[in-house]
Specification:
With 133 residues, the protein is mainly α. It is 44% helix and 5% strand. The chain has a two-stranded antiparallel ribbon. The radius of gyration is 30 Å and the shape is elongated.
């Protein structure tokens, strides 16, 4: 008996395209998340990952990431050179203004803090702590 039941074929195709659309949507969301993280780690705005929706946008984004000067590396080179690091406000419509960044490490002309002296002499017992009894 030939298989001519069009309703079962329609049901099969509907289920197939439903599963296929879920897979496509999941892969698009996954790509956005991955590109968002890559752009953020490079020092760019994560919203740059939305360029994948623009025709040739993914190619443009890859060229920027491959051949551009990453803001993270620029800041790292400034820190390594010992020069002052200045961050700029990068919001559109506003003029950039410098914000000095305090280095967590002492500069060459600043002395290191002296280590604290141990208040207990060798052989002296430590005071009793009720928390450990």
């Amino acid at each position: 008996m030939p298989y001519n039941d069009s309703s079962s074929l329609t049901a099969f195709l509907a289920a197939y395209f439903l599963v296929l659309s879920v897979i496509v949507i999941a892969s698009i969301v996954f790509n956005i998340i991955v590109y968002w993280r890559i752009c953020s780690k490079a020092g760019y705005s994560g919203a740059m990952s939305l360029l994948i929706f623009v025709p040739f946008g993914a190619l443009i984004m890859m060229c920027i990431l491959a051949f551009g000067d990453w803001p993270v590396l620029r800041e790292l080179n400034q820190l390594r050179s010992g020069g002052p690091v200045v961050q700029f406000n990068q919001f559109q419509g506003q003029t950039p203004f410098p914000q000095p960044v305090q280095s967590p490490y002492p500069q060459p002309n600043q002395p290191y803090a002296q280590p604290q002296q141990n208040p207990y002499q060798p052989g002296q017992s430590y005071p009793n702590n009720p928390r450990y009894q």
